[in-house]
Design goal:
The protein is mainly α and 274 residues long. The protein contains 13 helices and three strands. Helix 2 packs antiparallel against helix 3, helix 4 crosses helix 5 and helix 11 crosses helix 12. This is PCI domain-containing protein.
Length: 274
């Protein structure tokens, strides 16, 4: 009975459209409850291959739907719940029933999540584990794994234009990867913006568009407003830089005044001595 309930819920999850994705958490909760009745939510020694596959399939749906709902915390939980299934030896899976079909995709998405939050140590730890379990040659053929690997290499080189190119069009391996790609570009854009604030007093809007990987000058103006910058006469002005320059000028003026005052005082003393 519980088997059929899980299968029906999986079928329902499979037919969800973007407009009905909000139904997914409730469906997933029901599916996990049914799996608990089957003692399959966590793989045990007595869990059958059929129940293993049902459980892994539900958890993979949970992971992928969490990405579409932009719930990275839920995605991370599903990824962690899937690890005991992904680490099972091959003999636990029946060749007739099959194995989880989205392991590479879920793992690749987790790698991309680690990149988007700047966890490079975690990224390489997962990558090393994959090399040990699947082999380097197999990894190099896997589009879902190679996508975050290419992005990480470009980030290490500081080639943000390559990162930008990888997040566009056909180079993104699936819809779910596009969500994290947007997060990654937003992070990079913020880093470039912070560097620009420190390096320049102002920039032409046309230059800022290319520098910040924005699609239009209007998008530059919106981004500038969100950062507290001033858009005027075709340029972006960085108030923080202006304030720092004014503060520096005040410090120079103050120091100069002290030097002048000390010099005059010294001169008056000399006159008294003479």
């Amino acid at each position: 009975m519980a088997d059929n309930e899980v299968k029906q819920l999986i079928s329902h999850l499979d037919t969800l459209k973007p407009s009905t994705l909000t139904q997914a958490p409730q469906l997933l909760s029901r599916a996990k409850l049914a799996l608990l009745k089957l003692h399959a939510l966590v793989p045990g020694a007595q869990t059958s291959p059929q129940h293993l596959l049902l459980a892994a399939t539900v958890l993979e749906y949970g992971a992928l739907i969490s990405i579409r709902l932009k719930d990275t915390d839920a995605f991370t939980r599903y990824y962690q719940q899937l690890q005991p299934f992904y680490s099972l030896p091959a003999e636990r899976w029946n060749s007739r029933v099959g194995k989880p079909s989205n392991q590479s995709k879920v793992t690749g998405l987790y790698l991309l999540l680690l990149l988007s939050v700047g966890d490079y140590a975690g990224f390489h730890t997962v990558l090393e584990g994959l090399e040990m379990s699947a082999g380097k040659e197999q990894m190099e053929k896997d589009q879902f794994i190679q996508y975050p690997v290419r992005l990480e290499q470009a980030l290490m080189e500081g080639s943000y234009d390559k990162v930008w190119g990888e997040t566009k069009g056909e180079r993104v391996p699936s819809e779910e990867f596009g969500v994290f790609s947007e997060v990654l570009i937003t992070t990079i854009r913020s880093e470039i913006a912070s560097c620009s604030e420190r390096a320049y007093p102002s920039l032409p809007i046309s230059n800022a568009k290319n520098l910040l990987f924005l699609d239009s000058e209007g998008a530059v103006v919106q981004f500038a407003q969100s950062r507290g910058w001033v858009a005027k006469d075709g340029r972006i002005y960085f108030p923080q830089q202006e304030e720092e320059m004014l503060a520096a000028e005040k410090d120079v003026m103050s120091s100069s005044g002290m030097v002048i005052e000390n010099t005059l005082g010294y001169a008056r003393k000399l006159e008294t001595i003479v």
